[in-house]
Amino acid sequence: MDTISTANSRQSIRKLYKDGLILKKAVATHSRARISRVHEAKRKGRSMGLGKRRGTKDARRPEKILWMRRQRVLRRLLRKYRESGKINKTMYKQFYMKSKGNQYKNKRVLIEAIHIAKAEHLKEKALQDQLEARKARAANLKQKRKTLQ
Fold first, then answer.
1. In whole angstroms, what is the distance from residue 81 CA to residue 66 CA?
2. pLDDT, tens digit, for every residue of 35-88?
3. Domains (ranges, CATH) in the chain?
4. Which residue range or ranges hold the Large ribosomal subunit protein eL19 domain (predicted)?
5. Measured CA angle at 145 (ends 143, 148), to 5 deg
6. Rounded to whole angstroms, how far apart are CA atoms 86 and 82?
7. How does 9-46 read in b/e, with b if 16+ C-beta sit within 10 Å?
8. pTM for the full model?
């Protein structure tokens, strides 16, 4: 005890520490238990009502961030569909520009629009084929009549 009370320099303190006569006190950590409990409650939706809101709607969740998120989702879907061959590059460009023009609210609406457009395209193609078949048949009949005369 006498050596400890006479230690008046850093070097002597280091020597006492090395010999094990004195111990280093642990640094007190700042507990995050309370704040983590608050975050958990907020994740569940507690303390998030109208009375607790200070910022504007745009400050709390910026519209630009929402827009970017939506555009990225829609563009990723369009790219995937184009690469898999579900839509051709013309349809891709049309849907890309429409999604940029805010025509599609979400992914589901875009998928529905793609299905409708594809069905319409197939319908037009079938009608075109029927028309061509009719024209060919009429031309055949005309040819036959000509040969009979």
1. 23
2. 999 999 999 999 999 999 999 999 999 999 999 999 999 999 999 999 999 999
3. 62-148 (1.10.1200.240)
4. 1-118
5. 110
6. 6
7. eeeeeeeeeeeeeeeeeeeeeeeeeeeeeeeeeeeeee
8. 0.68
